[in-house]
Amino acid sequence: MQFSTFALAALASLASAQSTGTKMHVVTVGINGTLKFSPESVTAAVGDMIQFQFVAGNHTATQSTFANPCQPIGAHSNLTGFHSGFQPAAASQAMGMTSTYTIPINDTTPIWIYCAQGKHCESGMVMVVNEVSTSNKTLAAYKQLAASASTVVPSGTNTTTGGTAGTTTTSGTGTSATSGAMSITTSSATAEFGGMMRYQKG
């Protein structure tokens, strides 16, 4: 098995995060060919990470608001949330890789997430991080709103700002790695983040 220097640094960084008590919550996207995030609800503490693992289909993990599911959060607020970009699992798996997208949890405010592929969101491919069960803003209510919504794909890919940053990683065997930074500008905010590709046996 071969790893690039950057890939090894990425793995070391994840190991370091785990050694400091950071919890990694894994969400499987498209499990068994379904239009689902699994699990659909995650409770995460500040400092935890959510890692989306794309195992089937061609899906996204895209942040929205509760009131406007299936649409990027920036379309209805002055925030620009995260968007993993489309992750074609079959292409990655053909090369022995698994695509992942990881976000840190900076506070415990609920995070509403949808898949921006076709009508996947309307079909119930949504989830929540830190749902408040005593509120009327529940996952069940979000799914109901999504059923009559219209999906909007954010412009650009791998966009991240606001309270939550994201990192794209592709896991699998390989000999190359890519790193870089991306700037996303909206009418009210500009943000930058570093993208990271890593390869390890999937």
Automatic annotation (TrEMBL):
Region (Disordered): 153-181
Cited CDD domains: Cupredoxin
Biased composition regions of type Low complexity, renumbered to the chain: 155-181
Keywords attached to this entry: Signal
Matching InterPro entries: Cupredoxin, Ser-rich/MCO-related
UniProt signal peptide: 1-17
Protein name: Cupredoxin
Species this chain originates from: Coniochaeta ligniaria NRRL 30616
UniProt lineage: Eukaryota, Fungi, Dikarya, Ascomycota, Pezizomycotina
